[in-house]
Design goal:
The protein has 270 residues and is an all-alpha fold. α1 packs antiparallel against α2. The longest helix is centred in the middle third of the chain and has 84 residues. The chain is rod-shaped and about 125 Å long. The protein starts with a helix and ends in a 6-residue tail after the last helix.
Length: 270
């Protein structure tokens, strides 16, 4: 009888040791997952965010598998949700959206560590359930209630995050709309600049030709010299506004007129 009891004790001890090893591995993987999630959320560009997100996915998958082996259902579900969120982060094409899902996974990673620690402690207690007192059983029940409350809080947080995600999507849509409007406005302005450039340069050329012809008619010794410094390419218009373009040609017209005044100022008609 003593021999049978010893065998049962050793079997129970071996099972407990194996379970504790699984929990230790799960906690280690969860620590890596949480660390990678923090780095993904703290990155300053989408490429670094997704680089750490990829590492976090692998760690959350490992935790999910180990938690399943340990029988820690809540940790298994949390690891799954965190992996899904981090996968979403990896699939986004903007920094804001990628970081949004990384933040969700990071928060779940923190909860995951607490859940695994609780499950690990519960496993040790269950191995000696026959020796537990009524007070210890009540403590376990209280702990289970606490986990239930945490699950409710988690659901509420997920609901709040869904609202935040919707607000973020609306904000991004508004930004894209404003950007499209600005681009359309700039395109229309550039078209008008190009039209002014074409007409103004033709008018200035005609003015130069008229001044040159007038110089010949008056038998000036020195003919009116063409400037042609007002001829530009359309690339020159890209970095200036519509008013800047108008002012440029106004100034060229003034300079051309002033040059003509100076040249004809000394004409006496002799």
């Amino acid at each position: 009888m003593k021999r049978i009891a010893l065998i049962l004790f050793l079997s129970c001890f071996a099972f407990q040791a194996n379970a504790q090893d699984l929990y230790d591995d799960a906690l280690t993987a969860a620590s890596y997952a949480y660390s990678h999630s923090k780095k993904a959320h703290g990155a300053n560009n989408v490429y670094h965010t997704q680089e750490y997100a990829d590492k976090a996915i692998e760690s959350f998958q490992k935790v999910e598998d180990l938690a399943n082996e340990c029988g820690c259902k809540i940790a298994n579900e949390t690891a799954y949700q965190a992996r899904v969120d981090m996968q979403s982060s990896l699939e986004q094409d903007t920094y804001e959206r990628s970081r949004f899902f990384a933040k969700r996974a990071k928060e779940l990673g923190s909860q995951l560590l607490e859940q695994l620690t609780y499950c690990q402690a519960s496993t040790g207690n269950n191995m000696y359930a026959e020796e537990a007192s009524i007070e210890e059983e009540n403590e376990i029940a209280e702990a289970e209630n606490e986990v239930s409350e945490k699950q409710k809080a988690l659901e509420e947080k997920r609901r709040q995050l869904a609202i935040e995600q919707k607000e973020l999507e609306e904000q991004i849509a508004m930004q894209n709309k404003m950007k499209a409007e600005l681009e359309a406005k700039r395109a229309a302005e550039f078209k008008e600049q190009s039209l002014i450039k074409s007409k103004a340069e033709k008018a200035l050329q005609k003015l130069e030709i008229a001044l040159q012809e007038l110089s010949v008619v008056l038998n000036e010794e020195s003919k009116f010299e063409s400037q042609r410094d007002y001829l530009r390419s359309e690339n020159d218009l890209k970095n200036e506004s519509l008013n800047d373009t108008k002012n440029f040609y106004v100034n060229r017209a003034k300079e051309l007129t002033e040059t003509a005044i100076q040249q004809f100022a000394g004409y006496t008609g002799n």
